[in-house]
Amino acid sequence: MQSTDEATGSVASQYTDHAYPLDDLKPYPMPIRVVAVVVAWLVPGGGHLVLGRFGRAALFFALLAGAFVFGLILNGRLFWPVADTEAALGFDLVTVLWSFAQIGAGLCYIVSYLLGIGTEFQAQAATFDYGNTFMILAGLLNYLVIHDAFDIAAGRKH
Amino acid sequence: MHVLMMALYAAIAATVLAAVEPGAETTRERVIHGLKTFGYFLGIGLLLSWILYPVPW
Question: Predicted ipTM?
Answer without folding.
Answer: 0.89
